[in-house]
C-alpha cells in the first residue's frame, strides 16, 4: 500500500510539474527595465573613436594549417591592433604565413628577452593555443611619426645598435617557433637600395647563429624591391600594393595601377620569394587631420548607414567611396575596398604568388568566399553578423544593437585595366553594435557575493556591511533561491541588491542551455515566488560579459538585453580559500588606480563562506581606510533601487507552494527519501519469499485427465527454427495433441518447411495468412481449433517432453483460465545471455510463485503458456491493442473471473538475444507493452483485483519510480567504488560524501538481496548454477542499467506517441535443451 501511495504521489507530482514548467516559461522579465541604461542609442561618433572586431565561431582559434584556399593567403597584423588580432583568431587556419608587428626600430623592447613567440595583446595563453601551422614572421617597424629622412639617417648610422635593441635574443625567438624576422619599410618607398641592403646585412649577421630567415616589406613602387642583390639576400619580399600618392582625391590602388605594379615586379616574382599585399582596409581622411587612418569595412559601412551616406563607386579609381560630415562637423572621406573590388584586383596577380591581406580583420568578410573558391563571385548579400563595432570607451555593462544584411549589385569586369562597370549598394550592411556603458569616474568599488554561504558566515558578513553602512550585491543560485528565502528577505530589508547566478555553457538561445537553463529559470521563478519581483542583475561566474569574443557570447548579450537584464562582470575575484586581506587589498588598489571603478567578487558558496567571513571585515576596513568609495549597485547605474527589480502581473499560485515544498523536501531529504524507497524494497523482498513459500503447492498428475490439446505456433520468417520447434512438440510424452502452425505471411521458406512436415505427420496442420501480426495469427488459430485447451509457444521454443503433461493438470479446476510455464534460457553463450538467465530464474521461480498467491500473475509467457479456450473467447480473444499481446490476454482472462496459475515443472527452452542491440529492441517492446497493458486495464485497480492493486501498480512503480531513482543509486554506487579504489591506491581515506551509515547499509542490502533472491529461486527450482550466482551481484554494474534505459525509452515513446516499435528478433537456432532434460519426477496419483 505504501508503494501505491508513493506511486500516486509521483504521478500527481508529474502532472503538477508539467503545469509548473509551463508557468515558468510564461513568466518573463519585462523588456526595457532600464531603458536609459540598456538601450543603445543611434549616437554618432567620429570614425577615429570606433573599431570593429571579428567574432570567433568557437572557444579558441585552431591554428593548424588545415583550411584550404584557392590560392596561398597570408596575414598582416599590425602591432597591438585588436581588429587585426580578432581576424587572425577566426581565420588563422587558412594562412600559410603571418606577418605581425613585434618591435620598434630604435626603441628598447618592453621585455628584456623578447622572443616574438606570442602575438601582442593576444589574450590566449601560448602554452594552451600555440600557433603551430602558419609560419610566423615578426617585423621591426620605424616608430610612428618618423619621416623618411630620419629613417635614412638611422639606417646610415648605428644600424647595428638599432637592430640589437629591437631584437636582443634571436636564439630565443627561434626556439619559440618564429620562422624569421622582417624589416618593415612599407611607408618608406624612397629609401635607397644601398641603405636597405646595408641594414639587411647587419640583420643577417645578427640572425646568423639563430638560423632565422629574414624578409623585407616595402611599397610595390620601391626601388629596393627591384634590386637583385636585395632579393638574393632575403627569404621573403612583400610588395604592398598601396599607392604612396594616395590622398582624398587619389585612390589607394586603381586596377590599372595594380596591373602596372605586378608587371614591373615580374622578375622579382620569378624568385619565388615575392608576396603581394592587397589593401583590405579603408583609407579614412578626416578634415583637420594631417594623416589618414585605417578603417575596417564594417566601420566604414556603419558610418555610411549612420550618416545616411550610401557608398558610391568610382570606376576610374576602382574603389568605393564614402563621404559624410561627422558629429563634430568635420568632412570625412573613406576610400573603401570591398570583396567585389578586391576580387577584381586579385585577377591581376598570378595565382601561384601568395597574397597578403593587409591587414587581416579589416576586410569585407565575403572576400573569403572568393579565397575558398577561386571561381566564385562575391555574393550580392553581405552579412556582418560575425563582427561587432564598439567604441573605445570603457564601461561596466554591455549593451548591443542588431545588425542587418546588406544587398549590392555589380557588373562583371571586362578586364583588370578597365575594372568594374558598376557597383552599388541597395541596402547598406551593418554589424551589431557592442557598447560598454554605465561609466564611473570616481575611484570606487562595488562589492558582490556569489551565493549566501552558511548561516553563521552570512550573519557575520551582513553584520560587517551593516556596521560600515555599505550595501552589496548578492548573486543567488538555485539552492539559495529554493532553501534560503529567510536570508533573501533579510537582504532586501537591509537594502542590499540581489541577482541570479547562471551556471553551465552558454549558447545562442539564451544565457545557458539545457538543464542549466531550466535551473536558471527555476531560480528566477523561486525569487518571484518569495519576493514578488524578478531580478535584473545576472552573472555567469566563469565568463565576463565584457569579453564578447564569440558569436554565441554576442547572442547571449543580446538575449539578456531583450530580457531587460544587466550582465554583471566577474571583476576582481578574491582568492578561493583562506587569503591575506592586505595582499588582496593591494591587488584591488592597483586595479582601481589603473581604472576608476572596480567590481570585487567573493565566492560565498557554502564550501568557501567560512574563508570569506574570516577575512571580510579586515578587507572592508582596509578599503574604507584607503578612502575608496564603495558604491551600491543603484549608485553605479545611477537609478533608484526599485528599478533593479522588475515587477510582473503574475500572481502567487497554490501550485507553486506544492512544487517548492516538494523540491525542498527532495533537496534537504534526499537521503531520507532514498531510505524510504530502500525500506520498501527491503520489506517487499521477504514478503515475496514468504508468499512463494506458502504457495508451493504443485498440481499432481492425474493419469486419467487427458483433454485434447492444440499447440498453436504463430510463425513469421522462422525457417531457421520452425522444424526443431515442431519436432520438440511431437516428442512430447502427452499424446492427445495436435499442432497448428499459422504462417503470418512469411517471406522465407517457413511455410514450405511446415508443408513438408504436414505430409509426414497428420497431427500437424498449417494455416497460411497474409501478414497482420502475431495477435492476428493467434486469433485465426483460436477460431479454427476445437480442443478445450490450447498451448501457445514461440516458433523458436523447444518444449520439454513432459511440459504439456504438466501444463494441462491445473485445468482440472474449472476456475483456472491460463497456466504459465517456465522458460529456460537455451543459449547461455555470453555474459548478456547469462544475465538474462539470472533474470528469468528470479522472475519466474520467485516472483511468479509469489504473484500466484493473490491471482496477480501479469504475464503468461509467449514461449510457453496454456489457455482454456472458452476463457480466452470470453475475455475477447487476442487483440492488437498493445505490442505485448500475451500480457494483455493474461490480464483480460483474469478480469473475466478466471485464475492464472504457475506450473514451474512445465519447461521450455528459448533463444534470448545475444547482442546488446537485439536485447535493447526486445526490452523496449516489453517495457512499452507493459505500460500499454497497464493503461488499458487501469480499471482493474478500481475493481480491487490483486492483478490491479498490486501487479499493475508495482509494474508502474518499477518503470516510473525505480527507473528514475535507482539509476541515481547505481551511479552513486559506482562512484563510491571508484573513489574507494583510488583512495586505496593513494593510501588515503575514502570520502564519505556526508551520508549516514544507514545509507551505505541500505546500498549493501540491495546488492545482498539480489543474491538472496537468486538463492531462493534456485532452491525452489531444485537446481543450482553457481556461475549464475557469481554473476548476480555484478548485474548492478551494467545489466540493470540497461533495464532502466529501456524503461526511460518506453516512457519517451509512450509520451510522444511513438508506439510502433515492434521489431522481429533475428533467430539463429542456437537454443538447446539439455541432452538429459532434468525435469522433476512426475508425481503420479495412486489409487
Automatic annotation (TrEMBL):
TM spans (from-to): 673-695, 964-987, 999-1020, 1026-1045
InterPro entries noted in UniProt: Chitinase_insertion_sf, Glyco_hydro/deAcase_b/a-brl, Nucleotide-diphossugar_trans
Example GO molecular function: glycosyltransferase activity
Origin: domain of life: Bacteria
Gene3D superfamilies attached to this UniProt entry: 3.10.50.10, Glycosidases, Glycoside hydrolase/deacetylase, Spore Coat Polysaccharide Biosynthesis Protein SpsA, Chain A
Keywords for the protein's UniProt record, in alphabetical order: Glycosyltransferase, Membrane, Transferase, Transmembrane, Transmembrane helix
Pfam families in alphabetical order: Glyco_tranf_2_3
CDD domains assigned: CESA_like (cd06423)
Family stated for the protein in its record: Belongs to the glycosyltransferase 2 family.
Annotated PANTHER family: POLY-BETA-1,6-N-ACETYL-D-GLUCOSAMINE SYNTHASE
Name listed for the protein in its UniProt record: Glycosyltransferase
Organism name: Actibacterium pelagium
Amino acid at each position: 500500500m505504501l508503494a501505491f501511495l508513493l506511486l500516486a504521489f509521483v504521478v500527481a507530482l508529474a502532472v503538477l510539474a508539467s503545469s509548473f514548467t509551463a508557468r515558468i516559461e510564461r513568466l518573463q522579465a519585462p523588456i526595457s527595465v532600464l531603458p536609459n541604461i540598456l538601450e543603445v542609442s543611434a549616437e554618432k561618433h567620429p570614425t577615429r573613436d570606433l573599431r570593429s572586431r571579428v567574432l570567433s565561431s568557437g572557444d579558441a582559434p585552431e591554428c593548424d594549417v588545415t583550411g584550404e584556399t584557392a590560392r596561398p593567403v597570408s596575414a598582416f597584423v599590425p602591432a597591438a591592433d585588436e581588429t587585426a588580432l580578432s581576424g587572425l583568431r577566426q581565420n588563422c587556419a587558412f594562412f600559410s604565413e603571418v606577418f605581425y608587428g613585434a618591435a620598434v626600430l630604435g626603441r628598447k623592447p618592453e621585455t628584456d628577452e623578447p622572443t616574438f613567440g606570442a602575438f601582442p595583446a593576444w589574450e590566449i595563453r601560448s602554452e594552451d593555443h600555440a600557433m603551430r601551422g602558419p609560419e610566423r614572421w615578426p617585423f621591426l617597424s620605424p616608430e610612428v611619426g618618423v619621416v623618411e629622412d630620419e629613417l635614412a639617417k638611422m639606417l646610415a648610422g648605428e644600424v647595428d645598435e638599432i637592430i640589437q635593441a629591437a631584437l636582443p635574443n634571436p636564439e630565443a625567438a627561434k626556439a619559440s617557433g618564429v620562422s624569421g624576422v622582417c624589416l618593415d619599410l612599407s611607408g618608406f618607398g624612397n629609401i635607397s637600395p644601398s641603405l636597405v641592403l646595408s641594414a639587411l646585412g647587419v640583420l643577417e649577421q645578427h640572425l646568423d647563429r639563430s638560423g632565422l630567415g629574414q624578409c623585407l616589406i616595402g611599397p610595390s613602387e620601391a626601388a629596393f624591391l627591384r634590386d637583385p642583390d636585395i632579393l638574393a639576400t632575403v627569404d621573403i619580399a612583400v610588395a604592398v600594393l598601396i599607392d604612396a600618392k594616395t590622398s582624398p582625391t587619389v585612390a589607394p590602388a586603381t586596377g590599372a595601377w595594380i596591373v602596372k605594379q605586378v608587371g614591373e615586379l615580374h622578375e622579382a616574382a620569378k624568385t619565388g620569394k615575392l608576396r603581394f599585399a592587397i589593401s583590405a582596409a579603408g583609407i579614412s581622411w578626416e578634415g583637420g587631420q594631417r594623416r589618414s587612418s585605417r578603417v575596417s569595412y564594417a566601420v566604414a559601412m556603419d558610418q555610411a548607414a549612420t550618416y545616411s551616406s550610401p557608398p558610391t563607386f568610382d570606376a576610374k579609381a576602382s574603389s568605393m567611396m564614402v563621404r559624410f560630415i561627422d558629429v563634430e562637423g568635420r568632412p570625412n572621406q573613406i576610400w573603401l575596398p570591398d570583396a567585389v573590388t578586391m576580387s577584381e584586383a586579385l585577377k591581376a596577380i598570378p595565382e601561384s604568388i601568395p597574397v597578403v591581406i593587409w591587414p587581416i580583420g579589416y576586410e569585407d568578410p565575403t572576400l573569403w568566399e572568393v579565397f575558398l573558391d577561386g571561381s566564385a563571385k562575391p555574393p550580392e548579400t553581405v552579412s556582418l553578423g560575425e563582427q561587432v563595432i564598439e567604441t573605445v570607451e570603457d564601461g561596466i555593462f554591455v549593451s548591443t544593437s542588431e545588425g542587418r544584411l546588406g544587398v549590392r549589385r555589380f557588373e562583371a569586369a571586362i578586364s583588370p585595366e578597365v575594372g568594374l562597370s558598376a557597383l552599388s549598394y541597395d541596402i547598406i550592411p551593418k554589424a551589431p553594435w557592442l557598447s560598454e556603458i554605465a561609466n564611473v569616474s570616481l575611484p570606487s568599488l562595488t562589492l558582490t557575493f556569489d551565493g549566501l554561504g552558511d548561516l553563521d558566515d552570512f550573519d557575520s558578513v551582513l553584520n560587517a556591511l551593516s556596521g560600515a553602512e555599505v550595501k552589496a550585491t548578492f548573486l543567488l543560485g538555485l539552492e539559495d533561491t529554493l532553501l534560503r528565502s529567510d536570508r533573501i528577505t533579510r537582504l532586501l530589508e537591509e537594502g542590499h541588491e540581489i541577482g541570479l547566478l547562471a551556471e553551465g555553457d552558454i549558447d545562442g538561445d539564451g544565457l545557458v542551455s539545457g538543464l542549466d537553463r531550466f535551473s536558471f529559470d527555476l531560480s528566477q521563478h523561486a525569487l518571484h515566488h518569495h519576493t514578488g519581483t524578478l531580478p535584473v542583475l545576472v552573472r555567469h561566474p566563469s565568463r565576463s560579459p565584457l569579453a564578447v569574443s564569440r558569436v554565441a557570447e554576442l547572442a547571449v548579450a543580446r538575449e539578456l538585453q531583450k530580457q531587460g537584464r544587466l550582465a554583471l562582470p566577474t571583476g576582481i575575484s578574491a582568492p578561493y580559500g583562506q587569503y591575506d586581506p592586505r595582499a588582496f587589498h593591494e591587488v584591488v588598489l592597483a586595479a582601481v588606480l589603473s581604472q576608476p571603478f572596480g567590481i570585487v567578487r567573493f565566492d560565498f558558496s557554502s564550501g568557501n563562506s567560512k574563508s570569506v567571513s574570516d577575512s571580510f571585515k579586515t578587507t572592508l576596513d582596509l578599503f574604507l581606510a584607503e578612502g575608496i568609495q564603495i558604491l551600491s549597485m543603484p549608485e553605479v547605474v545611477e537609478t533608484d533601487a526599485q528599478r533593479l527589480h522588475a515587477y510582473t502581473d503574475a500572481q502567487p499560485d497554490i501550485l507553486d507552494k506544492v512544487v517548492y515544498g516538494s523540491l525542498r523536501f527532495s533537496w534537504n531529504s534526499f537521503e531520507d527519501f532514498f531510505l524510504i524507497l530502500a525500506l520498501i524494497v527491503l520489506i517487499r523482498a521477504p514478503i515475496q519469499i514468504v508468499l512463494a513459500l506458502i504457495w508451493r503447492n504443485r498440481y499432481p498428475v492425474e493419469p486419467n485427465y487427458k483433454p485434447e490439446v492444440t499447440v498453436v505456433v504463430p510463425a513469421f520468417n522462422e525457417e531457421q527454427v520452425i522444424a526443431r520447434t515442431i519436432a520438440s512438440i511431437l516428442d512430447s510424452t502427452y499424446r492427445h495433441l495436435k499442432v497448428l502452425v499459422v504462417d503470418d505471411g512469411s517471406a522465407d521458406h517457413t511455410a514450405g518447411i511446415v508443408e513438408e512436415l504436414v505430409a509426414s505427420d497428420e497431427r500437424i496442420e498449417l494455416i497460411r495468412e497474409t501478414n497482420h501480426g502475431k495477435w492476428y495469427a493467434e486469433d485465426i488459430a483460436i477460431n479454427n481449433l476445437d480442443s478445450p485447451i490450447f498451448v501457445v509457444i514461440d516458433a523458436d521454443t523447444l518444449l520439454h517432453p513432459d511440459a504439456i503433461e504438466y501444463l494441462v493438470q491445473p485445468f482440472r479446476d474449472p476456475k483456472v483460465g491460463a497456466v504459465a510455464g517456465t522458460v529456460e534460457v537455451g543459449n547461455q553463450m555470453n555474459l548478456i545471455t547469462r544475465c538474462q538467465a539470472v533474470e528469468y530464474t528470479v522472475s519466474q521461480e520467485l516472483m511468479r510463485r509469489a504473484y500466484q498467491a493473490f491471482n496477480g500473475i501479469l504475464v503468461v509467457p509467449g514461449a510457453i503458456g496454456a489457455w482454456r479456450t472458452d476463457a480466452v473467447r470470453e475475455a475477447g480473444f487476442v487483440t492488437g491493442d498493445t505490442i505485448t499481446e500475451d500480457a494483455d490476454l493474461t490480464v483480460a482472462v483474469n478480469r473475466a473471473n478466471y485464475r492464472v496459475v504457475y506450473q514451474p515443472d512445465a519447461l521450455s527452452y528459448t533463444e534470448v538475444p545475444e547482442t546488446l542491440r537485439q536485447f535493447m529492441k526486445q526490452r523496449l517492446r516489453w517495457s512499452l507493452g507493459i505500460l500499454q497493458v497497464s493503461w488499458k486495464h487501469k480499471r482493474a485497480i478500481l475493481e480491487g483485483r490483486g492483478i490491479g492493486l498490486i501487479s499493475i501498480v508495482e509494474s508502474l512503480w518499477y518503470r516510473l519510480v525505480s527507473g528514475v531513482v535507482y539509476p541515481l543509486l547505481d551511479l552513486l554506487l559506482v562512484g563510491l567504488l571508484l573513489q574507494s579504489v583510488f583512495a586505496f591506491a593513494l593510501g588515503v581515506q575514502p570520502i564519505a560524501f556526508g551520508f549516514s551509515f544507514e545509507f551505505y547499509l541500505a546500498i549493501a542490502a540491495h546488492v545482498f538481496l539480489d543474491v538472496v533472491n537468486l538463492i531462493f529461486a534456485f532452491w525452489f527450482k531444485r537446481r543450482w548454477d553457481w556461475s549464475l550466482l557469481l554473476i548476480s551481484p555484478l548485474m548492478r554494474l551494467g545489466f540493470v542499467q540497461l533495464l532502466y534505459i529501456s524503461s526511460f525509452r518506453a516512457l519517451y515513446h509512450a509520451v510522444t506517441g511513438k508506439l510502433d516499435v515492434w521489431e522481429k528478433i533475428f533467430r539463429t537456432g542456437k537454443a538447446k535443451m539439455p541432452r538429459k532434460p532434468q525435469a522433476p519426477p512426475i508425481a503420479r496419483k495412486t489409487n
